[in-house]
């Protein structure tokens, strides 16, 4: 079968290769991948700016159909439709973080798509505990968003509280930003979405997802709009979802005293910020990395209830053979979430 693999360290070195079809282990679940979303991590692995262990198959945001289970598997059966928590492929299971469900902080953790081989292929074999059955009314396309949606759930539902009447600034309307938007809107908040002229398509999607205001900071004054919408008070909560230095500065500046700041975007380098803003405004600052077992349980509950529509975030579906074109589209912000499917 075919697979999209990082073959060796360095920029690039990603190509479609032939690999053997994996065999199901006694405690394994063999999943036929239906869709895998392109994540920013995949782009970072391509450029070798995110730690990876080649040769390694890329891809970790995926859904699929169970085709075979090992004799030790109890709860998952062939034919089940699943989303897979690829972040826990390698963990110790014993440290304080693993025991609490916060596997992201396990010192030996390696996730699919960078630490161990992932889902840009036809079949993967995973453990039973990594599989989450998806409701019948949820499509495979939507289910492929479970992993990034779990990130959004942690950012919005678990770190702090959002209340009806809050004014929220969301800076960076990429896939994570728009998934966060879907949840914030459900809380009844007024949402200002900020981005740049490159985000024109994403602004249109944000408006369809009921963002109250979109702001192109390259041609409009975010300060003036925040002052107008908050009567000079500042926003209650700011989510930074781009990792850009200017975006971080805008979020901190826009917050009211005693406001809340949530960092979702990865800067990937040292940046300069006016750190005293946190002190003088007495801000609450939260970092959000990945998700937890609690996040995934909530994701499945939200999907079962149908309270949030993830479909607008999916803008393109393409075959795996066109992966480079799809990666380039992501970099140019010509889509939001692009899904790849096997066409070997």
How would you describe this structure to a colleague?
This protein is of the alpha/beta class. The chain folds into two domains: about 200 residues, Medium-chain alcohol dehydrogenases, catalytic domain (Quinone Oxidoreductase, Chain A, domain 1), CATH 3.90.180.10; about 130 residues, NAD(P)-binding Rossmann-like Domain (Rossmann fold), CATH 3.40.50. The chain has eleven helices and 16 strands. The strands form three sheets. Strands 3, 5, 6, 7, 8, 15 and 16 form a seven-stranded mixed sheet that branches. α5 links the parallel β9 and β10. α4 crosses α5 and α4 crosses α10. The protein is globular. The chain starts with a strand and ends with a strand. The mean pLDDT is about 95.
What's the CATH topology name of the largest domain?
Quinone Oxidoreductase, Chain A, domain 1
The averaged pLDDT comes out at 95
What is the structural class? alpha/beta
Task: List the total number of helices.
Answer: 11
Q: Give the C-alpha Rg.
A: 20 Å
- What would you call the shape? globular
Q: Class of the largest domain in CATH? A: Alpha Beta
Question: Could you say what the CATH architecture of the largest domain is?
Answer: Alpha-Beta Complex
Low-confidence stretches at least 5 residues in length (pLDDT < 50)? none
N-to-C SSE string, H for helix and E for strand: EEEHEEEHEEHHEHEHEHEHEHEHEHE
Give the total of domains.
2
* Helical content class: 25-40%
CATH-level-4 superfamily name of the largest domain: Medium-chain alcohol dehydrogenases, catalytic domain
Bin the strand percentage: 25-35%
Distance between the termini: 7 Å
How many strands, which pairing sense, and closed or not: the largest β-sheet?
7 strands, mixed
Specify the oligomeric state: single chain
Task: Please tally the β strands and state the result.
Answer: 16
């Amino acid at each position: 079968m075919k697979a999209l693999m990082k073959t060796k360290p360095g920029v690039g070195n990603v190509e479609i290769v032939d690999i053997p079809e994996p065999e199901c282990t006694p405690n394994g679940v063999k999943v036929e991948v239906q869709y895998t979303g392109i994540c920013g991590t995949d782009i970072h692995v391509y450029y070798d700016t995110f730690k990876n262990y080649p040769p390694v198959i890329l891809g970790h945001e995926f859904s699929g159909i169970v085709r075979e289970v090992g004799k030790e598997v109890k709860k998952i059966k062939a034919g089940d439709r699943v989303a897979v928590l690829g972040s826990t492929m390698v963990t110790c299971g014993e440290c304080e973080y693993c025991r609490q469900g916060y596997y992201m902080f396990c010192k030996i953790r390696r996730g699919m798509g960078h630490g161990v081989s992932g889902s840009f292929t036809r079949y993967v074999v995973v453990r039973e505990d990594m599989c989450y059955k998806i409701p019948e009314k949820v499509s495979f396309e939507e289910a492929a968003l479970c992993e990034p949606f779990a990130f959004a759930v942690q950012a919005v539902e678990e770190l702090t509280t959002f209340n009806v009447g809050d004014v929220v600034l969301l800076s960076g309307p990429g896939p994570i930003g728009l998934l966060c938007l879907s949840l914030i809107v459900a809380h009844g908040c007024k949402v200002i979405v900020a981005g740049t002229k490159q985000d024109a398509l994403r602004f249109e999607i944000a408006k369809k997802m009921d963002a109250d205001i979109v702001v192109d900071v390259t041609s409009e004054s975010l300060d003036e709009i925040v002052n107008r919408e908050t009567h000079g008070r500042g926003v209650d909560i700011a989510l930074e979802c781009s990792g850009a230095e200017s975006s971080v500065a805008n979020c901190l500046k826009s917050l009211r005293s005693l406001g809340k700041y949530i960092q979702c975007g990865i800067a990937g380098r040292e940046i300069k910020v006016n750190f005293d803003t946190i002190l003088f405004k007495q801000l609450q600052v939260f970092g959000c990395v990945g998700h937890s077992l609690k996040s995934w349980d909530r994701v499945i509950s939200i999907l079962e209830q149908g309270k949030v529509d993830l479909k607008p975030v999916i803008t393109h579906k393409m075959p795996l053979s066109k992966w480079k074109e799809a990666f380039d589209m992501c970099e140019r912000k010509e889509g939001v979430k692009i899904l790849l499917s096997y066409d070997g």
